[in-house]
## 1
Amino acid sequence: MSVQTLHKEQLIKKPIDEVFTFFKKPENLAIITPPSLAFQILTPLPIKMQTGALIDYTIRIRGLLVRWTTMVAEYNPPFSFVDVQIRGPYAFWHHAHIFEEAEEGTIMTDHVQYILPFGFLGRLVHRFTAEGPLDNILEYRARKIEEYFPIDITDAPSKEMLRKAARE
């Protein structure tokens, strides 16, 4: 078994409490998941996020509707939470969501460790079945997060600041 790792960071120009409040609501996954995955939460809403919370949902993978159950293994608001797969398309799934205060807002880090099913065959087709699509999902998510958390006009550089930077 070979553990694969994805690591993505994104600066969100909002305070950590505001960012964490968005991500602690599983129903917001529908906003940041590509429509092609037909993501749907089955667990009745609202879901109380806490260690041990179970979340059932379905996603479409290669045309097949797949049921996925994750459990919140760690919950440390507003700094992190970890979800692990209990049932789903992977042999192993561990997703750490980390939020760090930064001068310009919040740095959100996704650290995903996973093992594909089917042993050697799963590893053989990894590039085509998981690595590219997972990267695409996280890229889509990053764009949607930028749309959801636009820079406030008060946060934007003033025209004078831009002129000064251009002169330097």
## 2
Amino acid sequence: MSDLTINISRLSEGAHQYDFDAEPKDLELDTRFTDRVIIHVLLEKTGSQMHLRADLRTNGRFECDRCLDDFQSSLSTHYEIVYLTEDGSGHDTTESEVQYLSPDATTIDLGDDVRQFLLLAVPQKLLCNDDCLGLCPSCGVNKNKVSCRCGEKSADPRWEVLKKLSLN
């Protein structure tokens, strides 16, 4: 059980707000995550269900996919989960993930969900900036830092046949 638990044993109906922060290592996040994770939670209880909305923020150090330089980036994400007791029914699940709790559950542990949603928030294509020029495919220099003349060289003459095909 992580430190990101909410005691629901005597939770009254209505809206409840919680604020947490955690070290990335406590959430089993890898070393790319460099700053504390800030978590703001709104939990609304009605009858046998609870609707949780969580906003997550942190920073990370990543490697650019184009130029291979390290860069710092902030990450933020939002998720929603509906908790139902195993005997609960009749909830529309089109907008939220649903998790079932046993009727004798006394706490909700947010640790795994926070970790998973933060990992999903990392972009698939990591770029230091949108205009990153990347590495020169010929000489390997970082084109953001150094200009090279490799692009001015004439192309291999064997490719000329393909150029003619694409022009037709």
## 3
Amino acid sequence: MKVNPTEFDWTPPTANTDGTPLAVGEITGYEIGIRPASGIPGSYPLSVPIADPAATKEALTAAYAAGLAVLKDGDYQSAIRTVGPVDSAFTAESDASAFSIVTPLPVPQAPTGFTLA
């Protein structure tokens, strides 16, 4: 499980589920689904839309830009699907799509004025 990942990466599909090649316009973007690890597998209450059909990565900060600032400390599972006139199924969840958000503890400044008396 990755801790504090910075981006999602994927390889775009090259064919339909029946094996036929993708036609121009069949992919209009992608959707990344995110759920708490304790949630229901395959059910993604958080969604990051990606409108670029040529995209192969998306910064995790896009989740925050999409209004998903609810990614607080915790464990999450994610999946992606192809969006178009007909959307694909979400990818299978795996260890490679699991991640944790861990906010580092603040580090205090060192004391000042340290001398011997």
